[in-house]
Amino acid sequence: MPRPPAATSRYWKLQRQLARFNTFLFHKTGGKVGGSYFGGAPVLLLHHVGRRSGQARISPLIYLDDSPRLVIVASKGGVDAHPAWFHNLMAMAQTEVELPGGGRRRVRPRVAEGAERARLWERAVGIYRPYATYATYTEREIPVIVLEPVP
Question: Which tops the pLDDT comparison, 2 or 94?
Answer without folding.
Answer: 94
